[in-house]
Amino acid sequence: MQKLIDALDKNGYYIWDDFMSATQVEQLKSCLPENWKQACIGRNDDVTRIESIRSDKIHWLASNLGEPVQVFLNQMENIRHEVNQHFYLGLFEYEAHFAKYEEGDFYKKHLDCFRGNENRRLTTVFYMNDSWTEEDGGELVVYDLDDNVIAKLPPKSGRLFVFLSEQFPHEVLPTNKQRFSIAGWFRINGVKDNVLDIAR
């Protein structure tokens, strides 16, 4: 955990390989749902489905999806606690979803915080893809705010990528085979139009 804290302090992001064991990843994959929803962009009343921007499908995480999901959420809670202790970000809750990319799916470059309601502060992306090769595509490309590429990450099984949501635009390149991940966000308490904006 200290490597995560040090990297966030120095660079604003951390690549945590082998965050979960191969056995834990397989247990998580056993919780993948049968029913998926087409992913959208935006939040609450501003949600829009634009397949020219993203074409993946999602399913929101909840502890009732199985014990492996609860184990994952517990690990995210440990990260939330440690980050709050060191950086005083006031991270209040965590929301996440499974993401499924079929062959040809992608997600164009974007930031994870929504304009006018920037309460996502720390993003996590966890990968569940065995034996991924360069020919499989589907890399996560991460930029700085000056549009320089700072990382190009294959969706390697067991890898967790953690980064400051407001600092790093990113995109998922088209994948050449089915690709699974968990995308998540640590959020502060946000209020919009006098209504508390809480996660699901």
UniProtKB/TrEMBL annotation:
PROSITE patterns: FE2OG_OXY. Keywords: Dioxygenase, Iron, Metal-binding, Oxidoreductase, Vitamin C. One of its GO terms (biological process) is cellular response to hypoxia. Residues 87-188 form the Fe2OG dioxygenase domain. Pfam families: 2OG-FeII_Oxy_3. The keyword Kinase does not apply. It comes from the Bacteria. GO terms for molecular function: ferrous iron binding; L-ascorbic acid binding; peptidyl-proline dioxygenase activity. Its cofactor is L-ascorbate. InterPro entries: HIF_prolyl_hydroxylases, Oxoglu/Fe-dep_dioxygenase_dom, Pro_4_hyd_alph, Pro_4_hyd_alph_FE2OG_OXY. PANTHER family: EGL NINE HOMOLOG-RELATED, HIF PROLYL HYDROXYLASE, ISOFORM C. This is SM-20 protein.
